[in-house]
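User: Sequence in, structure out. Go.
Assistant: Echoing your sequence, followed by the structure tokens.
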Amino acid sequence: MKVWMILFCAGVGAFGQFFAQRSPILTDIDNYFDPARALTNPATYNELDHNGNPLGLLDIEQREVSLNLAYRHFHLTNDTTDDRRLSSNAFRLPYLQIGKPGVAIAQFRYGLSLADCTWVDETQRIPLNRFGFTVAGQSSSKRFRIGLDAQAFVGRQNSDDTDVTRFSGGLNSSGLYMGSELDELVRIGFYGRVYGMADTLDGAVNPALKATDRNRDLFGQLILPLIGVDLDVGKEDFPYLANFNFDYAKKHFVSNFLNSNQDAIVSDSLTFHFKNMASIVANDFITVMPAFNLRFFSTNHQLWETEGDNLPIVDYKEKRSGHTFRTRSFQFGIGSSVGLTNYATMWAEYGRANLNLEVNDDYTFFPDSIPENNGYNRFGIGFDSPVHQLPFIKNVPASIEIYFKFAYVLMQENALLNTYRSDQFTSVHRLVLDNGLGTQTWRYLPWETIACESSLHNTMFGAGATFLDKKFAVDLHLGILRQKHTSLADDDFEEKYKGIEFGIDLTYNVFGELAERSDEMSPNESPDIPE
């Protein structure tokens, strides 16, 4: 197993979920949500949490002016040696929301992510400045709704043992959204988005490295267009909730390696995602909420010869005959929560995903066989409790609310399931590798990537409180992580990691009510765009 593949698995394989659009690891504040209840939390059944559509803010937000500050820490370390690790410290300073609930809302955010990737005696680090804004509004009749969202990042990577630096920057999300409330129970949205990033190695910074420019690996990618539609059914206290979205995306990837243009990879993706939940009141004491989820994606990849400066879209020459491959995945999830009046909610979820890779027989370097997987599972259990409402808790002032959460999640993953992620570790690449290869070569050898599998055990504890009638809120999260990487191509390969994640949020609600949501700081998250 190549060094870069191990780092790729560690940096990407941990971040996907079978039936959620958000990351379960708190490496990136903008990807934070309730890290366990992906399916059975009714608070996430809206356009924003399901598909990153800012029009959902018009349905769920009750705050007029609020300010949020946050911090996230994450690290994974090799179980047998401390010279292989990923770590991150991320800050949000600040996250400001202004608006009139149900009419118009504007959000502004700035954050700093400090990501480190260490392999033996070499550490790559990159500070990423993250900034963005979101606006959404609707007419008085709610028949016309419009939103605009833009999230960007920029940073410069450096290494401990070389003067070479690398610039990374791009758009995580930039989109226009239009929609309508067809009925008080049905909302529809249409959207167009664009994503892009550039990663360029400044090899000339260190003249001594000019002789090793063969290690230069510059690349850029652009997702254009991405168009889609989503549907949101239900409302608060209604016994049925559902979300659906369908996306079409075209992704362009270009790379420069060994001082020459490499083939561009143009990918066409189709994705649909449907989830729904019902509420069944058994009696005055118990409420059961079963949930079901389906997702499917199919992506066709075509290699193109390039010319000129090797820029996305404009510098393609002609299709590379026979150089095609396809990735497909069908995923489902089931789960249920059981509420015991206002005292506690217990929940359990199970998800399964398959993954298929089909490669044209004429593809260069095609292997004798492609590793076959048996599918991937995700299992989670947990409970939430409003501690201030428990009958044996005494002397809690009426202006204070206290919450506690516990969850355990086991996830099995493959890097090809969620290879497009708005996470800073996808921007941290090794500048010089032991085998002399560039870090993006895995994109041309998908059978090596599909061989990389991982499993993650995450035991999570959370606590939170609101004060002064919900004017102030604090939220704490701690996760204990155990991760293992294996290879379908090598039965003897195994890498074990351990680590923690920690997060704290402070929110001051100037006007309006603090929304009772699992994601107190929900930013707009991009949909999964399979590689």
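User: And one key feature?
Assistant: Helices lie at 3-12, 47-51, 57-60, 446-450.
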